[in-house]
Amino acid sequence: MVERRKPIKVNEAISRVMNFATSGKVEYVPIEDSYGRFLGEDLIADHHVPPFDRSPYDGFAIRSIDTIAASSANPIELEVVGEIGAGSVFEDTVTEGQVVRIMTGAQIPDGCDAVVMFEVVKEFENDNKSFIQLKRNVKSGDNISFTGEDTKKGTSLVRKGTFINPGIVALLATFGYKKVPVSKKPKIGIIATGSELLGVDEPLQPGKIRNSNAFMVQSQIIRAGGEPIYFGQFSDEFETCFNQVANALSQVDILITTGGVSVGDYDYLPEIYNKLHANVLFNKIGMRPGSVTTVAEIEGKLLYGLSGNPSACYVGFELYTRPIIRTFLHHTNAFLKKEVAILGSDFPKPNPFDRFVRGHLTYESGRLVATPVGLDKSNVVSSLAEANILIVLPGGTRGYEAGMEVSVILLEDQEGTTIEKFTTMDVNTRRSQRKYD
Amino acid sequence: MVERRKPIKVNEAISRVMNFATSGKVEYVPIEDSYGRFLGEDLIADHHVPPFDRSPYDGFAIRSIDTIAASSANPIELEVVGEIGAGSVFEDTVTEGQVVRIMTGAQIPDGCDAVVMFEVVKEFENDNKSFIQLKRNVKSGDNISFTGEDTKKGTSLVRKGTFINPGIVALLATFGYKKVPVSKKPKIGIIATGSELLGVDEPLQPGKIRNSNAFMVQSQIIRAGGEPIYFGQFSDEFETCFNQVANALSQVDILITTGGVSVGDYDYLPEIYNKLHANVLFNKIGMRPGSVTTVAEIEGKLLYGLSGNPSACYVGFELYTRPIIRTFLHHTNAFLKKEVAILGSDFPKPNPFDRFVRGHLTYESGRLVATPVGLDKSNVVSSLAEANILIVLPGGTRGYEAGMEVSVILLEDQEGTTIEKFTTMDVNTRRSQRKYD
């Protein structure tokens, strides 16, 4: 007899999964390996920036008081008493009528309170001494980058959990993080199921297809920030299957299986959950694709039963697994960014279920435009390649027209958003007041 | 005497650099390592998708002709003569009055031309035989995914040079790419210059700062798709410097130095270019930050003299080095995406030079909004952390107001754009007709 399952809403499914979200540990990596990881602690300034008053240009450090009378009609002459390369320090105090040649980044010498650039002075020699001629007066503080003007010592500059981009790497170096505290990656196991699956290097056989989900999910795990561990394909035999799952579970933080979760006669997963005494959080969601997405929990560890259908598998991962990975990484905005866009083409076929349609986001004159890609049959693999968004189309009795506002989920986004914003953001389906042209 | 340099326009600098763009070789990596690389050849379908007519659901494969008379008033009964799991093939031909139980993804048996889902039939047993009762008629082709309906064999599905995302990994697996042809990464050397630079693990000293550019550029190279090789910090002594550059050059495809390119007395790079008989493409650009960005060429190999100033270094890399890296990777859209956004806050200070202001892009009601981050002094490191765009502000005598349209360059984008679009796109500075609210 076929099992009857009761579908729950997407937001309810998210909420049930997130009850089991945990944060992982912190480890240290060399700064060279920190790009693309997530900060394990707040990034703190260990000194003022700049650490001293310094010159932002090549020029001459001067005393502004000496220049009060200077003008085109009355050029003044000042003696160059030394020079400071970046990284050097001028040991004396500069006194009346003196200037010091100074390089970009060098510390302003004692006595000086401004810098004039090379271009505004005339240099000359006289009696074996160097001088500059200046035809304008200078205000105290001109062309000086002051101590702490950018950042005060002790400031928390970047929050724990932030994705480390090149700018953050620069900050880490500036503040002496030779070793960087980063969030440990969750280990995520993958098991592919399905007796129809061939290995990627096997020739095609009647009735069979190559296993693509395992490799796709592996890439999604990497993109989300996790560490994938592929356990291979399931055996067809129940006891062996069961042992494979139990064994894999013991080695990972999260386990993903693909396929085997529908109500077909060959789908072992429900039975395996039973035998493991797993707490099944849900096994049916009112969404397309991915309605059979199943999540179970054993002693706080999550088991994802993603669909064997590539698109359903993809969507199930991004909606329910990614936020768990990002939370493990201490990322505050664990959910993919959700924004409003204009639908770029008609999508006439109505569907009673909420749909997550693969789409491509473009910008047109500063507006977001979302265009569905491919046929959007749930077994169409190729449209996944082009997709950089999922277009959220709430279920109903009518289709959608170009020009309507829709919600879109940004797949390549690193910033993310909170669960509150992700689950409560209006999915506008009203016709845009100003039709897009 | 100070050298006088003649600044050129940004687009002219890009065009001079791109004259020396070359494409790299192709190598093969296991599919597991292909995510995030760039396709070295077009991805070709090695078979139809689906490879055979198959069932998209669990259900019963039937002959539609048998159901013509079926209705609620006149339910028909059909005998279940076998079952097909996904991956199996039904060996016989189905004849009148017969159906076959079929699992999702399995091949439609000979004789059948439609599938009915479990939910619409009633199953029963009689005389040790299995039957279904059906109360509606079915059209030929119902619930069948037809051979090649998604993709025809031989189709080029993804173009050479495309960034490999998880969807493309799924395609690679589907079409048997156990080893994936990917573009070889260009080896990019980095040398940091500046006697003011401390190592990241050294304590601060008067007048000195820690070297952050080398690590930042290293991350930018990785993000762009290259392979960074860090050669360390320059010596202060000219001959040693020269030998370090010459030695590094021989080991890389592209060499980047940071610092040492202004007209200061301690800036050795110009002299090194001379001694190497390098062809200096330009050493001054009418832009801020990054005006001293220098690019030279020796026997087709590019030497980048990026500014020692972190922001200038960052911008110089993204504008002039990244497209060279992406071209090496066979990426057609080698330039960062440039789009129109609404300026999110005033930027009142005018500047005669074209500026590339670090900013943060957000979406508000489906529109792109660009907000400058930090003080935007060119030495402000911290604003780089938050930046996900560069706001392009053409030079002029007036500042910019919130609500104006501006061009923005998307730093985290993987899709990119062509040189034509990047360099000819209008940088609108007119006030937006509809002020943003």
UniProtKB/TrEMBL annotation, chains A, B:
<keyword id="KW-0501">Molybdenum cofactor biosynthesis</keyword>
<dbReference type="InterPro" id="IPR005110">
    <property type="entry name" value="MoeA_linker/N"/>
</dbReference>
<dbReference type="InterPro" id="IPR005111">
    <property type="entry name" value="MoeA_C_domain_IV"/>
</dbReference>
<dbReference type="Pfam" id="PF03454">
    <property type="entry name" value="MoeA_C"/>
</dbReference>
<dbReference type="Pfam" id="PF00994">
    <property type="entry name" value="MoCF_biosynth"/>
</dbReference>
<dbReference type="Pfam" id="PF03453">
    <property type="entry name" value="MoeA_N"/>
</dbReference>
<dbReference type="InterPro" id="IPR036425">
    <property type="entry name" value="MoaB/Mog-like_dom_sf"/>
</dbReference>
<keyword id="KW-0808">Transferase</keyword>
<keyword id="KW-0500">Molybdenum</keyword>
<keyword id="KW-0479">Metal-binding</keyword>
<dbReference type="InterPro" id="IPR038987">
    <property type="entry name" value="MoeA-like"/>
</dbReference>
<keyword id="KW-0460">Magnesium</keyword>
<feature type="domain" description="MoaB/Mog">
    <location>
        <begin position="189"/>
        <end position="327"/>
    </location>
</feature>
<dbReference type="InterPro" id="IPR001453">
    <property type="entry name" value="MoaB/Mog_dom"/>
</dbReference>
<dbReference type="InterPro" id="IPR036135">
    <property type="entry name" value="MoeA_linker/N_sf"/>
</dbReference>
<protein>
    <recommendedName>
        <fullName>Molybdopterin molybdenumtransferase</fullName>
        <ecNumber>2.10.1.1</ecNumber>
    </recommendedName>
</protein>
<comment type="similarity">
    <text>Belongs to the MoeA family.</text>
</comment>
<comment type="function">
    <text>Catalyzes the insertion of molybdate into adenylated molybdopterin with the concomitant release of AMP.</text>
</comment>
<dbReference type="InterPro" id="IPR036688">
    <property type="entry name" value="MoeA_C_domain_IV_sf"/>
</dbReference>
<comment type="pathway">
    <text>Cofactor biosynthesis; molybdopterin biosynthesis.</text>
</comment>
